[in-house]
């Protein structure tokens, strides 16, 4: 057994005999049998004498390891360096040496002709820089693998990518964190060089040959986000950090948005970029903020389409004239792959159209003078940078210019550039345009009994499971291909499915065409974003008017922190849904100026989140911060504008609205319970956002003399939230209140429900079962277990999450029973709310459970309707229920918490004017 000293690199290797338990493990492992079965030479020796010499055994291990049929396993630990020396010895003994395999490169002086690289010190030097690292006090180290020739201290080398000659200052051999200077390195050696400024994956030579090796595989970045410094000093630090990270990591791309001039970082995933942002803050002490991550889509066409466009403009004097004809066609798959291979590591979201489109001039003659051709290409390429579908790069396209016309006087560079742009706009939609999305290879390791739940989750994310294999008796590896845009939030879901025992990784697979229904959604989001940006440009100038004010609204959850900056002004506006004909909402006009969404885990506190938001928001530089009203909804109880702790945001401690407002210089910060905030959103609802469950008697037709109108909000999600809004008819005064009414005891109504009561008490370990236990999201898998147990099913095979259960409604009998029972009990609670509040303003249903079961809820004779209309057994009471308007809020784009925060902030801000 190997023992190591406690120093970082043991100078002495100690050995001692094996203990009894270790010997037992070796005997159980099977001895030489496995290796003898693989190696014929060893088998012959073994048949002659079972005591095979050690050197012959080592040769057999080496042969089969190189053949990739045998894998030596060594025992050891990094702690105190136990077993490290035998591991390094095994690397030398069993793995192939540089002379055991051949390498090939490409002679660029002979048009890339393939050449053989030989591990000979006397040949011209050839090596590859495969990594960069800052390692004080040595500075920037470039890790170099020598393939041919030798490398010496002080020698100059040529970077074959830039043809720049640079001199080595030092050659270092590294052992862990220790370095030792050497004078030379030969074939197979890996050394660290100082004095070089090259990127990872670059081939270096001594200048005597112009050879290159196949570059490292560097996939195109698939996620981008903006990053900005808080001050000029931070800007210098950020630039230094980005330059270093870009040099060290070829998958990390830094570019500038040509429109906004923002710094854009791109990489292989959301976490990849957030880690670098955090390193800038930690290692460079720079205060930087990041925007919301965006998936890098691409656009292309599926069919060949001709163009024939004439640009003509006459406004007195010299005019503009240019005509272009030709066609667009999609590149073949092989052409695209050839380009990706040739330029891998150089393609970014900002320049993708430059590399992945080909401009081809097929004009023969002088129809268009040659000096105009470059401007025609420029006009096309400017259009390709921002496609019309999503604003993404147009790629995988060939533009063929076949002809055109010019005018001796009116034709110019500007005219032909405009003609190309007009031709693109005219013809692009005729080529059956489509959106390409990045699809990722995803590998997930989960406990075997959670495999079904995981696969269901992947299917919900529109992924394709490509295979699975058992790693052990307890763990299974699942492979899948999933669109990147559907992978956000997967870590949280996996943690929920596996109770923290799952692991996952992903890498880029390919760009593939997005399904048609998803394309419509993405295009709609792009149109809405452009409309908001246009409104922003128009609105910034009006900030600070006598009848306007700035507000900040926030909707905070355990996963995301959403914030919006809005301009509110006194103007005519429609009546709110929650008021009657005699009282209406304050006449206001609201314009969105800026919106941001941050992962809550990345925000140390509400103060930090608001500070980041106010530093990014464009209009706040010019506005008086002291006049800004901010209202934020939080998932916790609020007392005296303070929140002590938030259960699902444990790192936010003692959030004090007044103290934060004073520190940030804001006029006022109001903290609301999230369901209270959602109730403030009731008056903001439009009829188009409501789906009628029971029409009842609308408030404008009700004959009532009640001094106040009540509206009720109920939402089954993680829990069952309830709240209500009261509007005074005479003064239009509105007050919103969160309720804990869902914690009333569950009352069984038949024998099965008495069984259910006992089951839930035991399953949850609670002395009392409340309505929330049987109607919120966690109730669905629990009810599925209840019905599965009654049917004698194996509970391990049943769905484990609410989305899975809801997704199997109608196809799985026990899942259907579970959903129906939860909705029946929810229907009863709705009936009781009708009796308790007599809500003439109506009841509004929100929440993930309602969204996922909407179709079954709305069906005639549904379980929810049964619980709502047939559980009171009294005609007068049932009449009250039937007179109450009940609507489901369409979750498509409606956040009740955000809308409520906007409404509350608007009222407070206008009252201050």
Automatic annotation (TrEMBL):
> Which residues belong to any copy of the Translation elongation factor EFG/EF2 domain?
294-432
Q: What would you give as a GO molecular function for this chain, any one?
A: GTPase activity
The record's annotation in Pfam families points to: EF-G_D2, EFG_C, EFG_III, EFG_IV, Glucokinase
Record keywords, A-Z: Elongation factor, GTP-binding, Kinase, Nucleotide-binding, Protein biosynthesis, Transferase
- The reply to whether Glycosyltransferase figures as a keyword in the UniProt entry is no
Name the GO terms of the biological process aspect: glycolytic process
InterPro entries registered for this protein in UniProt: ATPase_NBD, EF-G-like_DII, EFG_II, EFG_III, EFG_III/V, EFG_IV, EFG_V, EFG_V-like
Q: Does the keyword Magnesium apply?
A: no
Elongation factor EFG domain residues are: 434-522
| GO CC term (a single one) | mitochondrion
Q: Show the SMART domains listed in the entry.
A: EFG_C, EFG_IV
Which compartments is it annotated to reside in?
Answer: Mitochondrion
Chief localization:
mitochondrion
Q: Which SUPFAM superfamilies match?
A: Actin-like ATPase domain, EF-G C-terminal domain-like, P-loop containing nucleoside triphosphate hydrolases, Ribosomal protein S5 domain 2-like, Translation proteins
According to UniProt, the name of this protein is Elongation factor EF-G
């Amino acid at each position: 057994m190997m023992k190591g000293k406690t120093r970082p690199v043991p100078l002495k290797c100690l050995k001692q005999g094996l203990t009894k338990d270790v010997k037992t493990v070796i005997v159980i492992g099977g001895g030489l049998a496995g290796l003898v079965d693989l190696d014929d030479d060893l088998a012959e020796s073994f048949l002659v004498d079972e005591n095979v010499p050690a050197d012959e055994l080592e040769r057999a291990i080496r042969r089969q390891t190189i053949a990739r049929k045998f894998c030596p396993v060594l025992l050891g630990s990094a702690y105190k360096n136990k077993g490290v020396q035998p591991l390094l010895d095994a690397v030398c003994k069993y793995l192939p040496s540089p002379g055991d395999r051949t390498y090939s490169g490409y002679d660029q002086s002979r048009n890339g002709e393939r050449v053989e690289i030989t591990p000979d010190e006397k040949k011209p030097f050839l090596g590859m820089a495969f990594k960069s690292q800052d390692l004080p006090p040595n500075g920037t180290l470039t890790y170099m693998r020598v393939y041919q020739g030798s490398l010496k201290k002080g020698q100059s080398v040529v970077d074959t990518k830039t043809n720049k000659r640079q001199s080595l200052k030092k050659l270092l051999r590294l052992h862990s964190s220790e370095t030792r200077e050497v004078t030379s390195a030969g074939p197979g050696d890996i050394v660290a060089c100082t004095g070089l400024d090259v990127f990872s994956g670059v081939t270096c030579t001594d200048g005597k040959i112009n050879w290159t090796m196949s570059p490292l595989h560097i996939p195109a970045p698939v996620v981008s986000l903006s990053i900005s410094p808080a001050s000029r000093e931070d800007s210098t630090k950020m630039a230094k950090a980005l330059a270093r990270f870009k040099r060290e990591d070829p998958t990390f791309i830094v570019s500038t948005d040509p429109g906004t001039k923002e710094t854009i970082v791109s990489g292989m995933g959301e976490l990849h970029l957030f880690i670098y942002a955090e390193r800038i803050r930690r290692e460079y002490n720079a205060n930087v903020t990041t925007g919301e991550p965006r998936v890098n889509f691409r656009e292309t066409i599926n069919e060949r389409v001709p163009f024939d466009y004439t640009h003509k403009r006459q406004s007195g004097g010299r005019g503009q004239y240019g005509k272009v004809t030709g066609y667009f066609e999609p590149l073949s798959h092989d052409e695209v792959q050839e380009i990706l291979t040739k330029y891998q590591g150089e393609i970014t979201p900002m320049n993708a159209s430059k590399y992945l489109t080909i401009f081809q001039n097929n004009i023969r003659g002088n129809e268009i003078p040659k000096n105009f051709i470059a401007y025609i290409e420029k006009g096309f390429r400017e259009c390709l940078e921002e496609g019309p579908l999503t604003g993404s790069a147009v790629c995988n396209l060939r533009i063929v210019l076949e002809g055109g016309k010019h005018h001796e006087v009116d034709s110019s560079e500007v005219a032909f550039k405009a003609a190309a742009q007009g031709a693109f706009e005219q013809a692009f939609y005729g080529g059956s345009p489509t959106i390409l999305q990045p699809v990722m290879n995803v590998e997930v390791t989960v406990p075997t009994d959670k495999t079904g739940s995981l696969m269901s989750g992947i299917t919900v994310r529109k992924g394709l499971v490509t295979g699975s294999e058992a790693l052990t008796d307890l763990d299974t590896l699942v492979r899948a291909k999933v669109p990147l845009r559907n992978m956000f939030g997967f870590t949280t879901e996996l943690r929920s499915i596996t109770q923290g025992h799952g692991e996952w990784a992903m890498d880029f697979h390919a760009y593939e065409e997005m399904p048609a229904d998803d394309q419509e959604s993405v295009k709609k989001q792009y149109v809405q974003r452009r409309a908001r940006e246009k409104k922003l440009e128009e609105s910034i100038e009006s900030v600070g008017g006598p009848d306007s004010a700035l507000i900040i609204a926030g909707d905070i959850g355990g996963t995301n922190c959403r914030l919006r900056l809005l301009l509110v002004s006194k103007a005519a506006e429609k009546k709110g849904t929650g008021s009657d004909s005699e009282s209406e909402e304050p006449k206001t006009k609201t314009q969105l100026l800026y919106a941001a969404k941050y992962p809550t885990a990345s925000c140390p506190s509400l103060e930090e989140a608001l500070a980041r938001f106010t530093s990014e928001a464009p209009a706040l530089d010019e506005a008086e911060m002291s006049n800004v009203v901010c209202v934020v909804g939080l998932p916790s109880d609020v007392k005296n504008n303070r929140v002590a702790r938030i259960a699902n945001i444990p790192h936010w401690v003692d959030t004090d609205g007044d103290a934060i407002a004073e520190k940030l210089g804001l006029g006022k910060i109001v903290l609301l319970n999230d369901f209270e905030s959602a109730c403030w959103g009731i008056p903001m609802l439009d009829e188009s956002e409501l789906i009628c469950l029971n029409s009842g008697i609308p408030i404008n037709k009700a004959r009532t003399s009640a001094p106040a109108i009540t509206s009720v909000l109920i939402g089954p999600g993680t829990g069952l939230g309830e709240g209500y809004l009261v509007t005074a008819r005479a003064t239009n005064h509105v007050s919103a209140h969160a309720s804990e009414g869902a914690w009333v005891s569950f009352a069984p109504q038949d024998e099965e429900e008495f069984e259910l009561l006992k089951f839930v008490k035991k399953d949850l370990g609670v002395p009392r079962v409340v309505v929330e236990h049987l109607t919120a999201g966690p109730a669905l898998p629990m009810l599925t277990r209840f019905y599965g147990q009654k049917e004698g099913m194996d509970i391990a095979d049943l769905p484990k999450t609410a989305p899975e259960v809801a997704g199997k409604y109608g196809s799985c009998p026990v899942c259907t029973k579970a959903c129906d029972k939860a909705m029946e009990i929810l229907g009863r609670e709705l009936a009781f709310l009708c009796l308790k509040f007599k809500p003439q303003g109506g009841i509004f249903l929100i929440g993930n459970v309602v969204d996922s079961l909407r179709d079954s809820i709305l069906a005639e004779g549904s379980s929810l309707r049964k619980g709502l209309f047939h559980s009171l057994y009294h005609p007068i009471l049932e009449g009250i229920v039937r007179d109450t308007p009940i609507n489901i809020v369409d979750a498509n784009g409606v956040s009740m918490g955000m809308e409520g925060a906007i409404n509350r902030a608007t009222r407070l801000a206008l009252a201050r004017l």
